[in-house]
Specification:
With 81 residues, this protein is mainly beta. Helix content is 9%, strand content 35%. The chain has a four-stranded mixed β-sheet with strand order 1-2-4-3, with no helix packed on it. A two-stranded antiparallel ribbon has the order 5-6.
Length: 81
């Protein structure tokens, strides 16, 4: 299912060097936090998503049609030896 993706997007996603990442934007009363599970910061649509690498994890995600999500769990943390 291409969900109306452009041919350019489909060509990029099919490349062998492609490495998809999650971009998470969370709104709070005092500001917005943007994070990614990538190993470097990601600039997307003029917003910078701060790299959290393996410290950012997700569970309970699934895709539906139309795309929606009633709930999910996002964790950010580290364990020391």
């Amino acid at each position: 299912m291409d969900r109306g993706a452009s041919s350019e997007f489909i060509a990029e996603i099919l490349k062998s060097s492609n490495q998809p990442v999650y971009l998470v934007e969370t709104w709070f009363d005092d500001g917005t936090i943007r994070m990614t599970d990538a190993w470097i910061n990601v600039l997307w649509s003029t917003n910078t998503y701060t790299a959290n690498g393996h410290f950012l994890g997700f569970s309970g995600l699934s895709e539906t049609r139309p795309v929606s999500k009633a709930s999910s769990v996002m964790g950010c943390g580290a364990s020391l030896g």
